[in-house]
Amino acid sequence: MQLVLEKRAERSTTIALVSPLIAIGLTIVTMSILFAILGKNPILALGVYFIDPLTDSYSLQEIAVKATPLVMIGIGLSLCYLANVWNIGAEGQFLIGAVAGSWLAVKTQGTGAGYWVMPAMLLLGAVAGALYALIPAICKVRFGASEILTSLMLVYVADLFLDYLVRGPWRDPAGFNFPTTAEFDPVATVPVLIEGGRLHLGAIIALLVVAAATVLLGKTIKGFEIRVVGAAPRAARFGGFNSDQLILLTFAMSGALAGLAGIIEVAGPVGHLQPGISPGYGFTAIIVAFLGRLNPIGILIAGLFLALTFIGGEQAQIAMKIPLDVTKVFQGILLFYVLACDSLILYRFRLIFPSPKVSSGTA
Amino acid sequence: MRKILIAATAVLLTAGASLFSASAADKLKVGFIYLGPIGDLGWTYQHELARQALVKEFGDKIETTFLENVSEGPDSERSIEQLVRAGNKLIFTTSFGYMEPTLKVAKKYPNVHFEHATGYKRDKNMSTYSGRFYEGRYIQGVIAAKMSKSGVLGYIGSFPIPEVISGINATILGAQTINPNIKVKIIWANSWFDPGKEADAAKALLDQGADVIMQHTDSPAAMQIASERGKLAFGQDSEMIKFGPKAQLTSIMDNWAPYYIDRVRAELDGKWASEDTWGGLKSKMVVMAPYTNMPDDVKKLAMDTEAAITDGKLFPFKCPVMGQDGKEVECKGGDHLADGQVLGMNFYVKGIDDTIPGK
Amino acid sequence: MELLEAIILSVLAASTPLLIAATGELVTERAGVLNLGVEGMMIVGAACGFGGAWLTGSTIIGAACGIVAGTLLSLIFAVMTLGLAVNQVATGLALTILGIGLSGLIGAGFVGERITPAPHLHIPGLTDIPLVGRILFGEDAFIYFSLALVIGVWLFLYRTRAGLVLRAVGDNHVSAHALGYPVLKIRMFAVMFGGACAGLAGAYLPLAYTPFFIPGMTAGRGWIALALVVFSSWRPARLVIGAYLFGAVTILQLHAQGLGLGIPSQFMSALPYLATVIVLVLISRARTGGSTAPAALGTVFVPDR
Q1: How far is the C-alpha of A340 from the C-alpha of A14, rounded, in Å?
Q2: Which one, of A161, A148, A46, lies nearest residue A97 by Cα?
Q3: Rounded CA gap, B111 and B105, in Å?
């Protein structure tokens, strides 16, 4: 007896809607067992993770703040992945975007520059992120070097470059040589939306990005090309699409979005450039992209959902003294279940009883 | 409404803590933000020990909570605010990178008190505290110069920030009192915490002729390597004798417990006020592990040096301090460098044949 | 000369975990599966390896525990990506998150403990040969095992029928399936081999390198192992060169600092990564006729029925 997958004739819409619920159900069962083993009340613990963060405006704002970079980067990455090119260096593009935008903030510090500074910073961040992403893209197109590797390696380079800048040339002169720039001027910061909170303009930009990506993929020829090149490269070649150009384009777009997310994060919630501005956003966003099924709206939901588990995990640490490692395990298990259940959209499980003839010689 | 309630409770608490302390519901909640995992055996571990000491000291009167592995980026402000919203009235943020976030949250919640480690920005409700680790480094320099046969010391740095630079300088100044020609080789790991890399750095230093290893990184890896090779080393942050029973000379231990107990007591008594504390050997914020693996005369010398620094008779940065170029460094603290000069130290003293990265 | 010998010894030790983990991943990728969860499997291998050695006092049992842990974790990956046809990149990253959490939970019990590091070989006569004796015969057994492992993998891939089948599965799973080879079963074994190697590589750190366990002690080595596989263009011999090259750059930059060469340490630390990018470009450029990557790498295979 054997369990096999059988391809469905078409995507199952019902399951597409139900599968996340099944996944959450399975996670709840698994985690309840784990919590019980750890001696914590499972119902209370799950309430803290999933429900409590949704019950007050503060936590909702924080979820949006945390989701903003994840969604922006995730959207960019989804364009690459749809075109079947593998940018896994968004973390580096995020950092370079942050660095480039910060350059303007540092240079205009205390010069009384006008309100053009912040928009210019965002533009610089996006351009720099795009250029940085073009390095692995060009290496791939021109020399055939694997973009997976080069984009990943450039993450470390970007990280060390940022480190060098804030410990050397850009160090806050009044900061006792600690590795950070001075706090940015008000004209160089991304404004908050609600007084006293941390929700900032970036959240709106992220929503615009989601809308733009939906239009791009659904309504434009370029979006069509991206999907065809990814799904059927041979057909795309016959169709006369230039796949090299598309690699460059999707890399540039994802780099630009990662860079934009980087400078927004620095000019928004952080307020200055320092090492460690990203707690792995570029990598988490890869998961977000897949959780969202490479669909803009899906990515928005996935980003918010992952942010919820971060906030919930923190509250569980405070309210129930549940170690951070348990939150990591929780996230891992949840991701596994969601991804596994998504498989039901395209496939159906079937138990088969193989006839003796089918068994093959090599095993 | 909730905010007002919180504010009101805070006022009541600080005004009349003694009245309320009888009731269990009004326990003082104390929160901690940690940079690493509590099991890092170094920096975070020492803060965690101090938290446990608090629990032991005050028992039912307080309730403590910590968040571990909080990155210094955009997440930290939220983590701190989460602690505030969970009702913590005194919050220790235990890494330099939490300075701006702590300041922001402190401005937002004037009735909550904050304690930030190793920073320099304060507010009405935000204190800073740090240790004069360089005092311990000076003693280590004296011991190292006595114990080194090759006259070459190996120093593993994390990042070239003033705390680390002043540690290197203090070591050399201490060593020069014994051996004016002492040499030091410095390797930057560019990480606070990467056991493998710290071990590699220790190996490289030993291979290049150093025979005493000192480190300003957090794991016991370097101690372990020195022990394996039959060489000597100094621990960092915590007692590391377990990892080098025949290698550890002493260790500079961060001892936050007395300070934390003081501050919590002040909070309970309603006497908390914003302060800038830079504690050293005297206030026992910096404690030397037992002097081991050295002859009695060196041990005595080390203890005498420790006593002299503790009594304020000896200043590690006693003027004149010579820079690398041989010129005297301006002496702003009377007969020794002023605290500000040490806090922002960004030069090597004479005798170090190297340059500070990024300079 | 002594310094040279010492540097070589350090490079050997620093390269070994990378080499072991990368060898496993190379086999996995040769079968057409991209498992980005190496870091997660390594750190769990480190925690379990240390736990096993600490409880029993035996390096061998520790290593076995690491191998078992890595294999179990890779089985989750296999079930997900092979059984359920889930995207490999996403699953691998999720595996890393899970692994980091699990290792923290497992390791919490023995943080602060230490064990006796794996013994160094000593073969009378051979180990005492000047210059080369210690390098060839005087280090811990893992170092020599890792080389034997690569040779074994090379023989397997290029000199056995099973290896040929595995490569065929990685290059074109549809044809391999049509020829009657059990694609998913072969891939599952390849994934498990990768997990076993990653677990062993992780266990090497607390068993031989720094004999204690600290959360997060793999510090990104799993990612470097992944890079090395691509760097080697999926060939075992180049993998050895790549691993030692990477180890050498890491160690030499430390030595350069100790000698007081005034180069920014960040630049030195970035060197291995830049070197990898540049060498990769050069290799790819010198190559004629496209990429040597397994053609089916990372793609989902569901047998038709």
Answers
A1: 16
A2: A161
A3: 11
Query: How far is B246 from chain A, CA to nearest CA, in Å?
Result: 35
Residues C224-239: tens digit of each pLDDT:
898 888 778 788 998 9
- For helices C265-286 and C221-231, give the axis angle rounded to 10 degrees: 30
Q: Does C135 touch chain A (CB under 8 A)?
A: no
Q: How far apart are CA C137 and CA C127, in angstroms?
A: 5
Contact A269 B160 (CB under 8 A): no
Note whether C108 contacts A168, CB cutoff 8 Å: no
Beta bridge partners of A192: A200
Chain A residue at shortest CA distance from B80: A314
Residue B180: exposure state from Cβ atoms within 10 A (0-12, 13-18, ≥19):
exposed
Whether residue B194 and residue C219 make contact (CB cut-off 8 A), yes or no, is yes
Interchain contact A138–C (C-beta under 8 A):
no
Residues paired with residue B32 on neighbouring β-strands, in sequence order: B66, B92
Instruction: With CB atoms and an 8 Å threshold, state whether A326 touches C101.
Output: yes
pTM of the complete model: 0.84
Name the DSSP class of B328: B
Residue C297 has pLDDT above 60, yes or no: yes
- Which residues in chain A touch residue C274, judged by CB atoms under 8 angstroms apart? 153, 157
Tell me B178's DSSP state.
T
Q: What chains are in contact with C, requiring at least 3 Cβ pairs below 8 Å?
A: A, B
CA distance C217 to chain A (A): 15
Starting from the edge strand earliest in sequence, which strands make up the sheet with B232-237, in order? B183-188, B152-157, B212-215, B232-237, B248-254, B286-288
Cα separation, A344 vs B55, whole angstroms: 51
The Cα A246–Cα A79 span in angstroms is 10
Shortest distance, CA B81 to any CA of chain A (angstroms):
10
CA–CA distance, A165 with A277 (Å, rounded to integer): 14
**Cα-flanking dihedrals φ and ψ of residue B283, to 5°?**
-85, 5
> How confident is the model over A123-137, as pLDDT tens digits?
999 999 999 999 999
- Rounded distance between C-alpha atoms, residue B120 and residue B99, angstroms: 8
Alpha helices in B59-161 (DSSP H): 75-85, 99-108, 133-147
Is the pLDDT assigned to residue A176 strictly greater than 70? no
- Concatenate the DSSP letters of all residues of A170-185 into one string: T--TTTTT-S-PPPPP
Phi, psi of A87 (to 5 degrees): -85, 105
Q: Is the pLDDT of residue B281 over 70?
A: yes
**Cross-chain residue pair C219–B195, CB shorter than 8 Å:** yes
Q: What is the token pair recorded at C122? A: 């000593």
